[in-house]
């Protein structure tokens, strides 16, 4: 081949005009087509991953909502029982029943609504009743701290339930 001659692809070559890759067959058109296809594929994969992440987050939120409502209902029952310790017709029992019924309603609201609606309702309530909201937040904070402290104590000092009685005098221990 001389330097003046140019190489033109044969009609059977994969770079020939009108080939299966598309377009006019110029390298710029082929590259643009590949970029478009890769961009579309990446966007599709990103959308799929986002959908999977959203689904996983929704499942986690539902699980946490179930745990939260169970705890709230358990707390409501404990409050109700504590109030009845003062007598069923006492002021303390009435106040405990009122608080417990409100907690039960809150648990039902959390269970039945999506997270966005719960947050919106909570912020509306806080704006309308700031003192009650802050008091409730403080009460929940104290209750959470108490539960955490109690569970920490159980973890560090497990209660051993056994019929074994240790002798009062260490010299009474039998050694072999």
From TrEMBL:
Residues 31-42, 49-60 have a biased composition (Basic and acidic residues). Residues 1-60 are annotated as: Disordered. Residues 1-11 have a biased composition (Polar residues). This is Uncharacterized protein. The lineage of its organism: Bacteria, Pseudomonadati, Pseudomonadota, Alphaproteobacteria, Rhodobacterales.
